[in-house]
């Protein structure tokens, strides 16, 4: 008789997500951060496309690092700061990335888009002058099936240089 | 409705507030998508919702001896367990024939065939309970190839045998020539996955009177609904299908997958039920691009003129028919490529096997054919000592030429212009031109990338070309149409428009196009597209590059009906003044919320014409009729021909077999670019999927089992696999299509694969008979 341990072992968690504290009860220990974001907090911005850390659709900030939330156990995020795409509304870099993605056609079906917005915000936040090669290298963990990446790269390059437009970026 | 052309003034200068067709209007859903607020089908929930899970066959071919659901039913949180016995209506679905069971009852025909369903309080509980469903199978010897399926004495996988369809297209006499050059080749193409980022998912909600509301990702919700009606034994009107946010499709969502399962569980439990496939289950749950074996013989005269083409195309259809019937038709019709050839003998067939079922994927049969004909054209050029573009130009289709089906090609064709455009591209630099040696440009620029596997000694550069075409829209006499409801109503001192269609917005931008068309036709800036549902007539499928043509045509027709209503209202309301202005030979112009006579003369504001309860028109748009194939595959089965061509530049390390693309150039004719940025997006994305097929994408099937059902093992291109791309849009209008448009979604997928493979041939000097090309195919053989 095999019993799934994840059903048996659970924990209560405190998570800070997008500046808000969440108290979660009875979270099975094997639950991913992605799963609690989506199924417990109704934060659907991080997507579940591969759940193996290959596609980047579930990218979120864990403190200052961009991670695949499918590969992080919810418990590992306890006591740290999580920021999802929904938490980037007031982020000036995120705003420039979002605006350029829409303007330049970096969005088609949009399933990968939140992951790209988070990753690109991370790239430009850490290195505002990142050149195209650096951007490409750091985007290699985000899969897009619609755009062929060309317009996403164009958008991130524009977001890098675009003057801050606080009205439009919000 | 055909034969309409937009008046010349309906172009790109209608002002910023009302940009209309020809502008690159931003996607209406773009802002929600970049904020993570757009609701995909996997993001839905409902109070009291259950989670569904599917029990699937582990065997490629087996009889079901017994199914015992008792343990599963007793498991924690389980609310229902269903089997074939619980299907109230027809236990079968399929877009052409209903040969695919909703839940297998007696036989399973592929690894992944659904046999039972579980609904439980949580996804974990549903998954665990599914593992407790006990199914006893008696394994049968599986049929794992087309040859085995069609061999004498092969077991019939379906009642009428294993041949799904064979099409022979013959013209002239291929045996009458003494060719100066003959090239024979056999090419195999692997099974490709659409790999949309969003997996299959949806939510079914039972309604109070025994019907059901399904929210699902789909390419054609009316086809879904009609199949569901038969399965659920409900009148179609009791099934409401709403398109939920679609995370890509590319053909994978033409067939229903979890749709019937969701509805069965919701109706059985009287509770909302949600399902989301994992990536692994997505590989099992949807159809794939057909693997193919292509055998070609080309004969040419010394001057390059194509004398004859003989070919056979074999497609493995897998366990169920899906759209195989139409895929094989395309493979046959486009087998020769965009070239004139009077003597052709094309034999194409597709058979049932116990491999994963295959069906629609972007390019739909023409992709496989182009891998054959473009390899042959390059090899023929070499045999004749000719430049590969020159050979293609010598044979390219022009106005008045005939297809292998005998269908005459009307109007100006773009193929010659595409080839000339590719020929005239700026030349590509040699690797060492900049004086920094073979490693110039850094590790990202070399095969193997940051894996640092080369110092550059073995790197060879190759330039390859490919051109391809297919038909846009539904062929062979299918009565295809789309429907649109457009409504004008006043709100807040403005007249705004609402568009209702059932066209599946799958990322391609059909909703953006609908907005632009209304802006152009009615001069209204504020246009809302309502979520696609089955409350309006069918829009047909978001496939075959047809939605801009068909749903665009329906929206345009509804707008033009509204325009007539507005003119009538202007006459009624303003009597004499309107009469004199409008009947004075002035054309009616709708612009900036006003009705004008000619370009300047104001007649009325729309707010003064549109009544408080609005104006509404519904129109259906049909394209002209096509014909089925007749004797020897002759007829006029196609509406519109859509073309693209590529130049690919590739570096190959012939020591390691690794490849790095250097540059891609795409040229495509779209008739008229209603939204140039969206068209470029289709060209880029289609090219990238073709690159994937050329270099890495193959579902590994052995013993009928998929061995790489994950994004760890099934690779799709990353940003580092896609080099800089240039796009050239040609606009050669189709006079029969709204605004002159031609389908834009698929052509770039057809020609990019052969262009890349031809570049690899040039770089490596190897023949390359299999696509995707594998590293060991490229490694130079030591000459000792």
Topology, element by element:
The complex is a heterodimer of chains A (170) and B (784).
Chain A: H1 5-8, E1 10-17, E2 20-28, H2 33-40, E3 59-62, E4 65-68, E5 81-83, H3 92-103, H4 113-126, H5 132-139, H6 150-161, H7 166-169
Helix pairs in contact in A: 3-4, 3-6
Chain B: H1 30-34, E1 50-56, E2 62-68, H2 70-74, E3 78-82, E4 107-108, E5 114-120, H3 123-130, E6 134-139, H4 146-150, E7 163-171, E8 181-189, E9 201-206, E10 212-216, H5 221-232, E11 239-243, H6 259-269, E12 273-276, H7 279-285, E13 288-289, E14 292-300, E15 306-318, H8 324-333, E16 343-352, E17 358-359, H9 366-384, H10 388-395, H11 415-423, E18 459-472, E19 481-491, E20 494-500, H12 510-522, E21 527-529, H13 547-582, E22 588-591, E23 594-597, E24 601-605, H14 606-609, E25 615-622, E26 640-653, E27 658-669, H15 676-695, E28 701-702, E29 705-706, E30 725-730, H16 747-764, E31 770-771, H17 775-778
Parallel strand pairs in B: 1-12, 8-31, 10-11, 13-17, 15-16, 20-21, 27-30
Antiparallel strand pairs in B: 1-5, 2-4, 2-6, 3-5, 7-16, 8-14, 9-10, 9-12, 14-15, 18-26, 19-20, 19-25, 22-23, 23-24, 26-27, 28-29
List keywords for this structure.
heterodimer, A: alpha+beta, DNA polymerase, domain 1, 7 helices, 16% strand, B: alpha+beta, Aldehyde Oxidoreductase, domain 4, 17 helices, 25% helix, Beta-grasp_dom_sf (chain A), 2Fe-2S-bd (chain A), metal-binding (chain A)
């Amino acid at each position: 008789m095999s019993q799934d341990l994840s059903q048996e072992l659970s924990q209560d968690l405190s998570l800070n997500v997008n500046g808000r504290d969440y108290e979660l009860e009875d979270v099975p220990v094997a639950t991913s951060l992605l799963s609690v974001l989506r199924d417990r907090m109704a934060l659907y911005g991080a997507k579940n496309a591969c759940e193996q850390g290959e596609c980047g659709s579930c990218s979120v900030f864990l403190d200052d690092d961009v991670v695949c939330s499918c590969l992080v156990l919810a418990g590992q995020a306890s006591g740290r700061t999580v920021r999802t795409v929904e938490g980037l509304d007031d982020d000036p870099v995120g705003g420039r990335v979002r605006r350029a993605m829409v303007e330049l056609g970096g969005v088609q079906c949009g399933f990968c888009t939140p992951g790209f917005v988070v990753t690109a915000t991370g790239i430009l936040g850490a290195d505002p002058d990142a050149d195209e090669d650096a951007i490409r290298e750091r985007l290699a963990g985000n899969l897009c099936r619609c755009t062929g990446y060309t317009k996403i790269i164009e958008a991130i390059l524009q977001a890098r240089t675009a003057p801050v437009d606080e009205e439009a970026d919000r | 409705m055909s034969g309409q052309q937009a008046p010349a003034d309906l172009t790109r200068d209608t002002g910023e507030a009302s940009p209309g067709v020809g502008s690159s209007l931003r996607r209406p859903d773009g802002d929600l998508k970049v904020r993570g607020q757009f609701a995909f089908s996997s993001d839905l929930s409902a109070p009291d919702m259950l989670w569904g899970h599917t029990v699937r066959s582990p065997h490629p071919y087996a009889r079901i001896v017994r199914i015992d659901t008792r343990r599963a039913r007793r498991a924690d949180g389980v609310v229902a367990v269903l089997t074939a016995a619980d299907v109230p209506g027809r236990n079968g679905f399929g877009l052409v024939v209903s040969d695919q069971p909703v839940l297998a009852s007696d036989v399973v025909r592929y690894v992944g065939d659904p046999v039972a369903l579980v609904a439980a309080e949580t996804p974990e509980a549903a998954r665990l309970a599914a593992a407790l469903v006990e199914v006893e199978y008696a394994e049968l010897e599986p049929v794992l190839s087309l040859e085995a399926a069609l061999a004498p004495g092969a077991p019939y996988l379906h009642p009428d045998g294993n041949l799904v369809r064979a099409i022979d297209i013959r013209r002239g006499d291929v045996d009458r020539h003494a060719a100066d050059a003959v090239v024979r080749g056999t090419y195999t193409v692997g099974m490709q996955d659409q790999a949309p980022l969003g997996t299959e998912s949806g939510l079914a909600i039972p309604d109070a009177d025994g019907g059901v509301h399904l929210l699902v990702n789909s390419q054609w919700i009316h086809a879904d609904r009609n199949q569901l009606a038969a399965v659920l034994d409900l009148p179609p009107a009791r099934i409401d299908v709403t398109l939920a946010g679609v995370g890509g499709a590319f053909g994978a969502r033409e067939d229903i997958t979890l749709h019937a399962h969701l509805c069965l569980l919701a109706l059985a439990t009287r509770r909302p039920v949600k399902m989301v496939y994992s990536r692994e289950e997505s590989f099992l749950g949807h159809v794939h691009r057909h693997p193919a074996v292509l055998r070609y013989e080309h004969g040419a005269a010394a001057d390059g003129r194509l004398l004859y083409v003989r070919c056979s195309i074999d497609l493995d259809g897998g366990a169920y028919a899906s759209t195989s019937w139409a895929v094989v038709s395309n493979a046959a019709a486009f087998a020769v490529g965009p070239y004139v050839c009077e003597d052709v003998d094309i034999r194409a067939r597709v058979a049932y096997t116990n491999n994963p079922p295959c069906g629609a994927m972007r390019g739909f049969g023409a992709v496989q054919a182009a891998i054959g004909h473009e390899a042959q054209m390059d090899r023929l050029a070499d045999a004749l000592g000719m430049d590969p573009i020159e050979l293609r130009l010598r044979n390219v289709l022009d106005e008045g030429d005939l297809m292998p089906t005998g269908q005459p090609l009307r109007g100006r064709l773009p193929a010659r212009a595409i080839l000339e455009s590719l020929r005239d591209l700026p030349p590509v630099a040699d690797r060492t031109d900049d004086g920094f040696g073979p490693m110039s440009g850094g590790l990202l620029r070399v095969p193997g990338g940051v894996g640092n596997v080369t110092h550059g000694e073995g790197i060879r550069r190759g330039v390859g070309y490919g051109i391809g075409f297919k038909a846009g829209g539904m062929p062979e006499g299918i009565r295809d149409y789309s429907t649109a409801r457009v409504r004008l109503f006043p709100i807040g001192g403005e007249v705004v428009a609402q568009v209702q269609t059932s066209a599946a917005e799958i990322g391609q931008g059909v909703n953006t196009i609908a907005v632009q068309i209304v802006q152009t036709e009615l001069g209204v800036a504020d246009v809302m597209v309502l979520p696609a549902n089955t409350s309006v007539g069918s829009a047909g499928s978001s496939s075959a590059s047809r939605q801009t043509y068909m749903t665009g045509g329906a929206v345009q027709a509804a707008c033009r009906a509204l325009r007539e209503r507005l003119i009538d209202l202007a006459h009624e309301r303003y009597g004499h003044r309107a009469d004199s202005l409008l009947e004075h030979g002035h054309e009616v112009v709708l612009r900036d919320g006003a009705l004008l006579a000619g370009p300047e003369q104001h007649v009325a504001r729309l707010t003064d014409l549109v009544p408080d309860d609005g104006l509404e028109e519904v129109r259906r748009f049909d394209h002209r009729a096509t014909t089925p194939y007749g004797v020897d595959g002759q007829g006029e089965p196609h509406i519109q021909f859509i073309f693209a061509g590529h130049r690919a530049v590739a570096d190959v390390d012939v020591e390691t077999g690794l490849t790095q693309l250097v540059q891609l150039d795409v040229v495509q004719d779209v008739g008229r670019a209603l939204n140039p940025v969206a068209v470029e997006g289709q060209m880029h994305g289609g090219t990238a999927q073709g690159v994937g097929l050329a270099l890495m994408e193959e579902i590994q099937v052995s013993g009928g089992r998929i061995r790489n059902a994950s994004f760890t093992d099934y690779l799709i291109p990353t940003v580092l696999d896609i080099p800089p791309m240039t796009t050239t849009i040609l606009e050669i209008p189709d006079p029969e299509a709204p605004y002159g448009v031609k389908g834009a979604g698929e052509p770039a997928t057809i020609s990019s694969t052969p262009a890349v493979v031809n570049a690899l041939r040039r770089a490596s000097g190897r023949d390359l008979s299999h696509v995707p090309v594998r590293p060991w195919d490229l490694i130079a053989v030591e000459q000792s």
